[in-house]
Amino acid sequence: METLNIIATPIGNRADITIRALKALFELQVLACEDTRKSKQLMDYYKTEYKDILGEVERPRLVSYFEQNEAIRADNLIELIKEEVKVGLVSNAGMPTISDPGYILVKKCLEQGIGVRVFPGANAAVSALAMSGYSSDKFTFLGFLPRKKGKQLKIWEDLNKSELDQTIVFYESPFRLLKTLNNIEEVFGEIEIGVARELTKVYEEMKRQKISEWKKEYENKKVKGELVVVFRKENK
User: Fold this and answer.
1) Beta 30-33 vs 87-90: how paired, if at all?
2) 125: Cα within 13 Å, side-chain hemisphere
3) For the segment 82-138, what is each residue's pLDDT rounded down to a tens digit?
4) Angle, CA of 91, 134 and 199, to the nearest 5°
5) Domains and CATH numbers, the chain
């Protein structure tokens, strides 16, 4: 069956990949990558580090697949799949299509009767939610927020009006964290916020504290690392 292979890659620690995904990567003929240089480094590492599992293998041909070329590249990849070429898709980290390129390709594959196989693995949002200590019975993932204050406030206002108790999860740049916390405070008030930083890496951290405490902590020092922000929205 004609199939697209969606393969999750580690979000930090390179050992966080399943054996099934590892084998699938080296069975491909073409691998679409968000950044071919990063994917090459990762696969060259696996080729050496897991030689006892993989044996003698060759890296598939790497082609770029990112937001700016996604629409055109998707059609190219579909043609290859129809020619029975084994094609896979990875992002720089985590699961493709989840705040990363891939949605257009998957949609077009399904529309044309091409199967989609997923090789699950690491995901920053789910990892942060699991270690946050907030209830995960119901949660909303917002991906990356709009940069403009007005658009962001609209999101918070809509969520605040919702009658559904839920946990909110989103990705944020360290350069915009404090501005975003100010926007959250403007709508929700002085609430507790959880921030996961550098997940699966040496300086991994999950901390929960009031917005005022976050402001005080980063008043005179830079926020560092890739961030996932988590907080609980409950009706009073």
Assistant:
1) parallel
2) 18
3) 999 999 999 999 999 999 999 999 999 999 999 999 999 999 999 999 999 999 999
4) 35
5) 3-119 (3.40.1010.10), 124-233 (3.30.950.10)
